[in-house]
Design goal:
The chain has 369 residues and is mainly beta. The protein contains five helices and 28 strands. Strand 8 (102-106) and strand 9 form a beta hairpin.
Length: 369
């Protein structure tokens, strides 16, 4: 009987999915954006001085300020494993999360230091990083059960084993700010609080920056997609990447634990009923209903397991504008955002490109027409 009530009231297996409306009303702005670079599965956009850095697999690439059209990104650093997160301090210190290793510091007095533990736990594969101050770092560990590349398994297993930490870089002392989180996947500093995105609970939460396993303040909840990385905007607000949409089919699969567990055991991952960075490339993929294609054309409003969505937040972290690539679009799986040279740059991991949008409201209105 308890299993029935767990399925009935769980936040991560809702009977309904909120619609995209109001500020989140769909448009095609991401599809109309220019392309800065075409690279496999780009991620982790950050600024380093006037330049832009982003990761792709085990490499970090750099785009110089005011790049000429068609300029290829320059290889900045190669690592032995997948890059899972990047943060840059005001002094130019680089913190790089590495799958299976932890966090490597590059530059300044801490150059070459490796943080391989958060307290008594290994810090392998952090999902998000941000500098609180020059010698203090906030770290999100998405899950203690699954690494960053197994995020689909983590959501379908309905895990909530993530944690938020602060680390003193001088002593390597780590403090657990919050535990039992539903895949913390983005973090930023706002005053005396750390704001995180909890992907599997579809919400933004904040915690006292000096707390030890404090209680969250819920800022936004019941988002229509899975929120990911956040980055500070120059106007005092922020940008939020939503890397996949929620759907009734996926929510239904999450509620049926016997079916879901068997699916994870017996079916290849690319055919799971699960959110993904890119869908629609195989006829064997799960469908969410009949009218997905009409006369061979993929309908823009069709149910989909992948989508492109970036959200601009104001100083109170409330949504004020959104940028979309709909079901039939070609900018899916938005995993990272960064304001650079008066534009919002986005990483589309589903479609293997780094693109850029103007932040001029008038130009965006013209493009949306």
């Amino acid at each position: 009987m308890s299993g029935f009530f767990d399925r009935l009231f769980s936040r991560r297996a809702a009977a309904t999915v909120p619609s995209m409306d109001g500020v989140l009303r769909p448009n095609t702005l991401l599809d109309q954006a220019g392309v800065l670079a075409a690279v496999p599965e780009p991620d982790n956009l950050v600024r380093l001085g006037d330049d832009l850095l982003f990761s792709s697999g085990s490499d970090i690439f750099r785009l110089a300020a005011d790049p000429a059209e068609g300029t290829a990104p320059e290889l900045f650093r190669h690592f032995e494993t997948q890059v899972t997160a990047i943060a840059v301090s005001a002094e130019g210190l680089l913190a790089v999360g590495l799958d299976g290793i932890g966090i490597r510091l590059i530059g300044g007095a801490h150059d070459g230091v490796v943080l391989d533990a958060t307290g008594s736990r290994p810090a392998k594969g952090p999902t998000a990083l941000v500098f609180i101050e020059a010698d203090r770092l906030a770290v999100c560990i998405g899950s203690t059960h699954n690494g960053p590349e197994d995020w689909q398994r983590d959501v379908m297993e309905m895990r909530a084993s993530g944690s938020l930490w602060t680390i003193d870089l001088r002593t390597k002392a780590a403090v657990c700010v919050a535990d039992g989180l539903a895949y913390p996947n983005g973090v930023l500093v706002q005053g005396g609080r750390l704001v995180i995105s909890e992907s599997w609970d579809h919400r933004l939460s904040s915690f006292d920056i000096n707390a030890r396993k404090g209680r969250p303040e819920i800022l936004i909840e019941d988002l229509p997609g899975y929120p990911g990385r956040m980055t500070r905007a120059e106007n005092g607000g922020a940008f939020l990447a939503v890397f996949a949409p929620r759907s009734q089919l996926i929510e239904f699969a999450l509620r049926e634990r016997g079916y879901c567990d068997r699916m994870l055991r017996e079916i290849p991952k690319e055919f799971w009923i699960a959110p993904t960075h890119r869908s629609g490339r195989s006829f064997r993929e799960p469908m969410q209903g009949g009218a997905v294609r009409v006369h061979g054309i993929f309908k823009p409003w069709a149910p989909t397991r992948s989508y492109g969505l970036a959200v601009q937040l104001d100083a109170d972290l409330l949504p004020v504008r959104s940028f979309h690539s709909r079901a039939d679009g070609n900018r899916h799986g938005i995993v990272s955002l960064c304001e650079w040279q008066g534009r919002i740059v986005f990483a589309s991991r589903g479609d293997n490109l780094v693109g850029a949008l103007s932040l001029d409201p008038l130009s965006l209105q013209d493009a949306a027409r």
